[in-house]
Design goal:
By secondary structure, this protein is mainly alpha-helical. It folds into 2 domains: 2-50, no CATH class; 61-115, no CATH class. It has helices at residues 8-12, 18-24, 33-40, 42-50, 66-81, 94-115, and strands spanning 2-3, 6-7. It has a two-stranded antiparallel sheet.
Length: 133
């Protein structure tokens, strides 16, 4: 098996330190033999069943690729052709999360200002009068 320029046989033959593989193994995701074996291991399954169920939401950015994006777009197009408005979740980067949080804060600030029957604080400053130097 070759993955990211690494050969599993290098560890089997003793050419590489097993501690390196132990740090690397968690990055082996869906589609690898390691991942499939982990999900078939009875001890791992028992440990996973003890965890609380995952909350539905956006998929992880590390698991997103062109195939998942294409399938998501196709699903949305098929749903739209049937008259349904469907917007499936997509992963968000940290930049997108911060932008949306900043936008929500500004919206809350503006809504609070409107409920007080006043203008938002960032528009209350008057422009200076007189000549501009």
């Amino acid at each position: 098996m070759h993955l990211r320029g690494l050969r599993a046989m290098d560890w089997m033959a003793g050419k590489k330190d097993w501690r390196e593989f132990y740090r690397f193994k968690d990055r082996l995701g869906p589609g690898t033999d390691y991942y499939a074996a982990m999900l078939d291991d009875p001890d791992t399954v028992e440990a996973m069943l003890k965890l609380p169920p995952a909350k539905p939401g956006a998929p992880a950015l590390r698991d997103w690729n062109w195939l998942r994006e294409t399938l998501t777009q196709m699903t949305e197009v098929i749903a739209a052709s049937g008259g349904a408005k469907v917007k499936l979740p997509r992963p968000e980067s940290e930049v997108e999360r911060r932008r949306s949080e900043r936008s929500r804060r500004v919206s809350r600030h503006n809504a609070a200002a409107l409920t007080r029957n006043s203008t938002p604080s960032f528009t209350t400053k008057k422009a200076p009068r007189g000549r501009i130097r």
